[in-house]
Amino acid sequence: MDTEPTSYLETEQKYDADPGFVMPDFGALPGCSVAGPEHYELSATYFDTGDLRLAANRVTLRRRTGGTDEAWHLKLPVRPGTRRELHLPLSEGTDTVPRQMQAMVADITGGAALHPIAQLDTSRTVRRLTSSEGQVLAEVADDEVTARRLGPEGRLGPEGSPMRWHEIEVELVSGPPTVLESAGNLLREAGARPSASASKLGRLLAAD
């Protein structure tokens, strides 16, 4: 029997940061305390058709290891800043996309084969913004990203040096949307800029 995917809505904002960026004190936000930081090393392989049909429809499909959410991840657009994310355990496959997820995107792929197109490695530092009752309102992920395009059969492409950048994600957990706005204001005051790309993969593909 196939495992049923877990599903939730992901609402987040992304920011770009220059080298040497210093994270602001989120404990200065009214009613917020900060838990962490916690550090993770993440590695994600992204899958798409040869002509990038998923990317053209703002859909991402990846296999991630490391961190607290090792799994197959499928992200579907809902509205600006919000995506529906579905997870399946890694036991559902290794280098082959699970059948359930292939079926979920079949109307986009038209049955075309899915294969690895990119490898993204992220050194992530997470801070959790909590309420006075201990509820996690939002998570702030400070990411150092190394991204590579993959060629045929999942091999590294011929483009040369990988792309590297520093970005910060603020993801809503149980707090109101104003938490995103307040945290974003602190980040901008510290010198961060709203990201021009809605996803890490999108940034890599747009660089071609």
Residue-averaged pLDDT, rounded? 89
Which structural class matches the secondary elements? alpha+beta
Strand content: 35-45%
CATH topology annotation: Hypothetical Protein Pfu-838710-001
Write up this protein.
By secondary structure, the chain is an alpha+beta fold. The protein has a single domain, classed as Hypothetical Protein Pfu-838710-001 (Beta Barrel). 16% of the residues lie in helices and 44% in strands. The protein has five helices and nine strands; from the N terminus they run ββαβββααβββαβα. It has helices spanning 53-56, 99-104, 106-109, 177-189, 200-206; strands at residues 6-16, 33-48, 60-65, 71-79, 82-88, 115-130, 136-149, 163-172, 193-194. It has an eight-stranded antiparallel beta barrel. The longest helix has 13 residues, at 177-189. The chain is globular, with a radius of gyration of 18 Å. It starts with 5 loop residues before the first strand and ends with a helix. 26% of the residues are buried.
